[in-house]
Amino acid sequence: MTLSTLLTIAVPEIIILIAAMSVLLLGVFYKNTTSLFGITQLTLLIAAYFTAQLPIDVKLTAFNEMFIADSLSMFLKLLSYFALSLVLIYSRSFLQSRNLHNGEFYALTLFALLGINLIISSYHLLSIYMGLELLSLSLYTLVAFDRNRPEATEAAMKYFVLGAVASGFLLYGFSMLYGITGSLQIAEISSRLSDTSINPVVLSFALVFVVVGIAFKFGAAPFQLWVPDVYQGSATPITMFIGSVPKFASVAMLIRLLFQGLDHMVLDWQAMLLIMAIVSMLFGNITAIAQTKIKRLLAYSAISHVGFMFLGLATGTITGIASALMYIAVYVLMTLASFGLIIHLSNQGKELDQITDLSGLGKQKPWCAFLLLLIFLSLAGIPPTIGFYAKFSIIQATIQFGWIWPAVIAVMSALIGIFYYLRIIKVAYFDEPGKNLNQVSKSSNNELSVTLSINTISLLIIGLFPSSLMDIATLTSALIF
Amino acid sequence: MLDSYFPVLLFILVGLGVGIGPLVLGKILAPHKPNDQKNSPYECGFEAFEDARMKFDVRYYLVAILFILFDLEITFLFPWAVVLDSLGLQGFIVMMIFLGILVVGFIYEWKKGALDWE
Asked: Which Gene Ontology cellular component terms are annotated (chain A) (predicted)?
């Protein structure tokens, strides 16, 4: 392995690292934060360019096979850059109006992105763990970013303690895997597990610990307790970031560990994922009905969406992975739009918090109300929006695999979910205007509203023509093995 | 039997000697003028005896965390320095990259004022 090939594979990560350090130093030496926004966006663009240069159909490894570049890494990395770029556009004015717009925000998001990239490209248990810690530590700090608000500190504390426990679980599972197989490299673990003389009890324990760790990072029930508090406590741009980009890392971690590393245990983890999928879908959708705060509602909705993703992944087939990849891309797009709308409606004025704050939106701001309609129809999974197609492809993959009753439960839980999504639309269109909405300033900034409109309309357009996105997802998942 | 344990015995004796010797020498040679302050147990910056459930200044944590960060770096530097001969240029460059990342953090904390006590 020569240095030049090594550098080609890892060049996006190197660029992100250098940019993160430069932004950190620039932020503390020069107070001009507008340029940092530009630098960060430029970094994402350059990183995307170099990521797209890599071949899609070959698995390239570097650093003693600790680092891999393949179709999955390219797909998820490009989506991460795109999602982070949108997050930054949405967050800027919000952070500026609350005096939170400083160099550390950009440095921390770039470090988190570096962690995400590292997890996506990891082919070794140690590098997965390292990426995970880099991501988690950046996220804990970001949650506590608005440190003068007690809720933010409380959420950060909860997230930190629970996250540390989950990392411990994952690490414990890794150590058992190392004890059984004598290797930390994922391909080697997979080949050594085909040996029948391995103690099945230790192996099952290792698997359980690893799955628990992954499920926690996803926020799947019954490991979802941190999700609502963190969503509610963090500043809205941070919630948007936590709810979107790290999900790509979680799905990569799951595919690398379970599909590529522990593929001999497929029957065991399939059952675990299926149970968590069903519990998450039902728990998320039923609990969301009782919520009165919009961010908390979206948190429970996130749990149910994770359930859908798990259902696709639990099938263990290529169509299953493809549908889950499709779902996660769509889910992130919807999350960005929904939090973007919250930011748009709470700019400068009072923060949008209660669902009832939305009342009268249809009369006062018809365009915003229309965007809200599209976003929540898509989250609910109603055609012709993309949310429908994503749910449809998951259920299709489940039925193809021969699981009829999980598919029935998925449809039922989606039906329950429609109730609370439609209730928000009903509040926005049919309820009498409240006092709160009047405080929303008219001079809301343009780049935000344009991005929000494009983002939301794209939910409709991709929903009408979903085949290209689905083709990319299918191609990606077919090349994983 | 005795041969193999002799080094251990020697170690114990030398250890005791190093431990007790300076104390005895200090007792014999040093000037001896006790007072209340000198006799009280020493604890940096705090009253020696008070309730353990008290508020600490947050700056202690900052200093402690920064200290641990840069202290741990030595844990990597020592084994690296020992085998640097066989690592060659690549080993040197890799460690310089690692130190470079740490230096960025150091510049940041310095400029941010984390090292100023007041």
From this structure: endomembrane system; plasma membrane
